[in-house]
Amino acid sequence: LLEGGPRQLVDLKKLIQQYHYDAGFGGSISIKKVLPAILSRSAFLKEKYSRPYSGKNFENQIWYREDYDGRATDPYKLLGPLSVDGQEVMDSEDGEGSGGDPIAGGGEAMMAWARMQFDDIPDAERDSVFNALLKYCELDTLAMVMVVESWRAEFG
What we know:
- This protein is mainly alpha-helical.
- The protein is built from 5 helices and 2 strands; from the N terminus they run αααββαα.
- It has a two-stranded antiparallel sheet.
């Protein structure tokens, strides 16, 4: 089921649409909705990601944390705020904006990338945004891996 194509690429969106329903998706099949729902229900993922994860852009990150209702905290909400030397980075030249909110969505990532390309921002802030983008992209990839890991643990 998870094999196909000349390079063994599979569209997880299609698999989720056709074979996986979870009320926790809230009617969406966005990875941002799918991941917390699957993470909340998978004993395998709970056990594995309750331990420190280290990757290209993370060191000792705990991805499985429970909220006050006993459900998995959305991993995208665990991405830290943008900061330079401990100071939160504002996301516009006039000081208005999210005050260092993490890059945790595709729209935010595209805007941050565009700003890095066209705005004159200090090198330290540019580095902070670039590193935040790397973390966001790594989590997006890890999210897809987690979905497949949960399916393999549950269905073999």
